[in-house]
Every structure is written in C-alpha cells, then in structure tokens.
Amino acid sequence: MTEGMAQTRGIIRPARIDEAATLSALALRSKAHWGYDEAFLAACRDDPTVTPEDVTTHTIRVTALAGRPCGFYQLRGAGETATLTDLWVEPGTIGQRHGRALWEDAVATARERGFRELRVQCDPHAEGFYLAMGAERIGTEPSTVFPGRELPLLRFALA
User: Fold this and answer.
1) What range(s) does the N-acetyltransferase domain occupy (predicted)?
2) CATH number, domain at 56?
C-alpha cells in the first residue's frame, strides 16, 4: 500500500477503553445514515453500544484518521464460529474503503485465531456490502430491538 493510501484508509489498531463511548456514538451515526427516523434510532441507541468491558473482553479494532476513529469492528467467537457483532464506519467516509479494510482485518484475525466460519447478523441496508465481500445469506434472525423484525444472517467460510 502506498503512503497516500495509508493516509486515506487509516491504520487499523486495537480499540482503547477510553474510546467505548466514542465508538458507540459512531455506530449510531452510521445507522442513522440509512435514513431511519428518530423513534427507530432512539430504540436502537443501546443496541450498537460498545462498553469498556467489551473492549477488554472482545476483539475490537479501529481505523482512525488524524487520530479520530472513523470505523471499527467487534469480533466475538466460540468453537469454530466467530461472530462479527459490529462493523461501522463514519457516514462521511462511506465509500472510501474503510469498511472493506475493516472486513479484511476481521477475516484475517478470525483465521489467525483458528475459526472456520464468520457469521454476521446485519442491518438490511448493509447486506449488499457483506455479499460483495463474499458472504452468503443463510437465513434471518429476529431483531433484539424490534419484535417481529427479521435481520439478515450471513456466513463467510474462513477455511
């Protein structure tokens, strides 16, 4: 990667405990990008939240530009399956390959840890991104926020 690309994409690094609230706010701004109304966003406010405990317990990696986080993902796992519970980018940086860079880092990290598959329950608006990354839809799962709402469930083979 050239130096110019590194500056455009940012560097992916582990999240810090003091960034938990910043990452939670970033996730909500990213969800708002899809045009959800305020009532919907208010109900989701706690769903994409990153806690300090999450930072110490799970793999959370951040891409930052000029020292400010512009995207992150959270990876959890047990057995042979890793779960990508979050992948969010700042709305103003969508289309600048930060999401792709985070995805590639998450896949590499999951492989390094010996997982055989990566599962993603995603916002319907983000499904196309994950399909373009090579994931396949294997079904739906109920939303934890809205009873009766189904969210895409995707799988990506790691081995």
Assistant:
1) 10-158
2) 3.40.630.30
Helix (H, G, I), strand (E, B) or coil at 45: coil
What percentage of the chain's residues is helix, strand, coil (to nearest 5)?
Answer: 40, 30, 30
CB-CB contact of 14 with 73 (8 Å): no
80: exposed, middle or buried (C-beta count within 10 Å: 0-12, 13-18, 19+)?
A: exposed
**Containing domain of residue 29, as a range?**
3-157
pTM of the model: 0.90
Measured CA distances, 139 to 108, 119, 127 (Å): 24, 11, 12
pLDDT (tens digit, 9 = 90+) per residue, 18-55? 999 999 999 999 999 999 999 989 988 877 689 999 99
